[in-house]
Amino acid sequence: MATDPRGDGTVASQDIASRTVGFVGVPADVTSARLAAEDFLRELAGVSPPAAAECWHDIVLIVTELAANAVQYAPGPFELRLRRTFDGVHVTLHDTSTTPPAPRPFHPSTGGGGIGWHLVHALCTQVSVVATDRGKDIHVFLPW
Are 70 and 78 in contact (CB under 8 A)? Predict the structure, then answer.
């Protein structure tokens, strides 16, 4: 196990294992995905604090949004993976829908959503969607 170059014996952030959690795809899994992300970030913050407090909150918000979309638009299970990158956190959400997400018009006066995919693009430094015949992976990168 690598340690901090200062020699104080702390675990280096690159040694934090990625976290992969599977969910059945029910509404309660949105909360469970958010809690899994918070557990991962708590461990990461112990060895590599975020550059700004909003980094933590942005990651949790994006995980919540991706999980909610998976529950609403994709039948069946989904899987969440979080891992540390050299300058942030890579979040991957796999679901069973082959349809890529698309922005919808946001009408604040009528409600009904439409802001989630816009938030993903606004808060993430990179966003990509890889669709296959077995579903899709949504990859997002956020600062830490």
Answer: yes
Instruction: For residue range 86-104, list pLDDT tens digits in order.
Output: 889 999 999 999 999 988 8
DSSP secondary structure string for all residues of the chain: --B-TTSS-PBPGGGSPPEEEEE---THHHHHHHHHHHHHHHHHHHHS--SSHHHHHHHHHHHHHHHHHHHHHS-S-EEEEEEE-SSEEEEEEEES--SPP------TTT-S---HHHHHHHH-SEEEEEEETTEEEEEEEEE-
Tokens of 85: 């990158």
Residue with token string 């540390």: 84
Q: 């679901």: which residue's tokens?
A: 95
Q: Which tens digit of pLDDT belongs to each residue from 119-137? A: 999 999 999 999 999 999 9
Q: pTM of the entire structure?
A: 0.86
